[in-house]
Amino acid sequence: MSWIVALLILYIIWDVNYFIRCVFTVFCGRLLQKKRKITDTTTIYGLCTSQDVDIFFRHMNNARYLRELDFARFHFYGLTGLYEEVCKVKGGAVQGASSVRYRRTIPIFHPYKIQTRLVWWDDKAIYLEQQFVTLADGFVRAVALSKQCITNCNVYDIIKKFPEGKTRPDMPEELKLWLDAIEVSSQKLRKDK
């Protein structure tokens, strides 16, 4: 009986399902899928359930998109081995910024996939593009750009450890404009101090 109380307390204090899903996503990816190049697109699948919907119970809540993107990033890191290389030099990764463009909702009980790909990198961060695609119609429901700040190491040094990372692609135009907007915002905040 005491273990039930302890489990209940854990569920109240922490989002236990989040941590279970993180572990499940990474280990299933590593055990059941082949390793990918850092330039490959990785894919995870999901289903919009009653836990994901907004107050009208019709489609996925905006906050859930961001949560699902976490799992897709962890999956990407696990399949490519990128995070392992960062850890070898005692580095880390933290979300520096994200931008989501919602094109059409994901209705309740509809399956979808999230495709993640590395689009660019600089000395301090990697930049990922992630797409939500519903399986029934192949429609891209949302697109996210993510800046993953890599701490305590030089990203160029890490990326060069992968054969496909020897040549950096051109910066996509939408990424350049997004980074410019981030810089304008940062300058404004610095002036406010």
TrEMBL record:
Entry-linked CDD domains: 4HBT (cd00586)
Taxonomy, superkingdom: Eukaryota
Keyword list, A-Z: Membrane, Transmembrane, Transmembrane helix
SUPFAM superfamilies: Thioesterase/thiol ester dehydrase-isomerase
Family matches, as Pfam families: 4HBT_2
Residue stretches spanning the membrane: 6-28
Protein name per its UniProtKB record: Protein THEM6
Family statement drawn from the similarity comment of this UniProt entry: Belongs to the THEM6 family.
